[in-house]
From TrEMBL:
Belongs to the AB hydrolase superfamily. Residues 21-257 form the AB hydrolase-1 domain. This is Sigma factor SigB/phosphatase RsbP regulator RsbQ. InterPro entries: AB_hydrolase_1, AB_hydrolase_fold. SUPFAM superfamilies: alpha/beta-Hydrolases. The gene is rsbQ.
Length: 269
């Protein structure tokens, strides 16, 4: 069973050290997106990488669109992976939606995690009264409609919006290729679960401390969202990066690694 779980999610374990970091990628990506960040940690940490079901090299055959209509399914999978590795008190490093997936996993199984590192997280992407999530519902519904009727158009639109580093077009091109490589059914269902989730009420239930890494000029998770998370998580630190866009582990890995290492040093047992 353990071997099957690790195969299903293409789990890779590298490095060695007293602390384990579990890296969880964001929407439309896979574990390869961590390749610039992981070398900064694997010399003195155990590093775990994986792909969500239907993405990267994870097994597509057991994917059930009905189950993956909510983020809870991804949180259950994350718990299953950590349990299969027989880990306790791991640090979850989650990009974008995986910040909240990690929070849900910690709520479900608090003994498995000691800390969360959330890179560009958001508990709700929609505008709602005084809460500024960044998106109008009509805009997101238009994106999902485009995913159904225009396989390439949505990636053309979303990749540069996410990356926000126009002077480095190769980064948006890589993200675009990753989006396009994701199975269309999986991509649309994950987008629905991501962009229409509202986990604001869950923040107060997160049982472990968290670091919120907030990027500059992040169109996906704007600054007000980072402030909201910091205000509503029971124990959190908010660190603003100079890095622009939504993927600092790709665009500014050195700064991102320094911020994470400083947090890990300050929270070492």
């Amino acid at each position: 069973m353990r071997r099957e779980i690790l195969r299903r999610f293409n789990v890779q374990v590298r490095g060695d050290g007293p602390r384990t970091l579990v890296f969880a990628h964001g929407f439309g990506c896979d574990q390869d997106m961590w390749r610039f960040l992981v070398p900064a940690f694997e010399a003195d940490h155990r590093v775990v990488l994986f792909d969500y079901l239907g993405m990267g090299k994870a097994d597509r055959s057991t994917y059930d669109p009905r189950r993956y209509g909510k983020l809870d399914a991804y949180a259950e999978d994350l718990v299953e992976i950590v349990q299969a590795l027989e880990l306790e008190r791991a640090v979850l490093v989650g990009h974008s939606v995986s910040g909240m997936i990690g929070a849900l996993a910690a709520i479900r199984a608090p003994r498995l995690f000691s800390h969360l590192v959330m890179i560009g997280p958001s508990p709700c992407y929609l505008e709602d009264g005084d809460y500024h999530g960044g998106f109008q519902r009509a805009d997101l519904e238009g994106l999902l409609d485009m995913m159904v009727h225009n396989d390439l158009g949505w990636a053309d639109l979303l990749a540069p919006t996410v990356m926000q580093n126009p002077e480095r077009p190769e980064l948006a091109a890589e993200l675009h290729a990753s989006f396009c490589a994701t199975d269309p059914i999986v991509a649309k269902r994950f987008a629905e679960a991501t962009f229409f989730s509202d986990n604001r009420a869950d923040l107060a239930r997160v049982p472990v401390p968290a670091l919120v890494l907030q990027c500059s000029h992040d169109n996906i998770a704007p600054d007000a969202v980072g402030e909201f998370l910091h205000a509503h998580l029971p124990a959190s630190q908010l660190h603003r990066l100079a890095a622009t866009g939504h993927c600092p582990h790709l665009s500014h890995p050195e700064e991102t690694a320094m911020a994470i290492r400083a947090y890990l040093a300050a929270t070492a047992a």
